[in-house]
Amino acid sequence: MEPVIDFGTSGGGDPACDLVIAWTMFSGGSREAFREAVGQDGGTWARARGWALWRALLVLSGCVGTDEGLAAVHRRVIDEVLADHARHA
């Protein structure tokens, strides 16, 4: 049996992990207000987009074809993360 390395908690302590709510809970102006209020640097926000994208893709892969409502939510998150990257990259 081959060993398995689980990197699921390797982001512990990274403030970017806490910013994922920017795409799951906020949109438009409220997301920008949150971004301004938090005051993190661009690198932290880039990592946060990565965490949000990772999570949305992971959940989406498990619910496509079984829970289209949940799939739609995570497709929206993916779209928002990609649009945010285009605005702030």
Notes on the structure:
This protein is mainly alpha-helical and 89 residues long. The chain has 4 helices and no strands. It has helices at 21-24, 28-38, 42-63, 68-88. α3 runs antiparallel to α4 (68-88). The radius of gyration is 14 Å and the shape is globular. The protein starts with 20 loop residues before the first helix and ends with a helix. The relative contact order is 0.14. The model has no long low-confidence stretch (mean pLDDT 89).
Primary descriptors:
89 residues; mainly alpha; 4 helices; globular
What is the fold's blueprint, element by element?
Elements: H1 21-24, H2 28-38, H3 42-63, H4 68-88
- Average pLDDT confidence is 89
Kindly report the oligomeric state of this protein. single chain
Number of strands: 0
Structural class: mainly alpha
The percentage of residues in β strands lies in: under 5%
Q: Return residue spans where pLDDT drops below 50 for at least 5 consecutive residues.
A: none
Q: What is the 3D form?
A: globular
Main β-sheet, in a few words?
Answer: none
Count of individual helical segments: 4
Termini separation (Å)? 43 Å
H/E element sequence: HHHH
The proportion of residues forming helix, as a percent range, comes to 55-70%
Radius of gyration over C-alpha positions, nearest whole angstrom = 14 Å
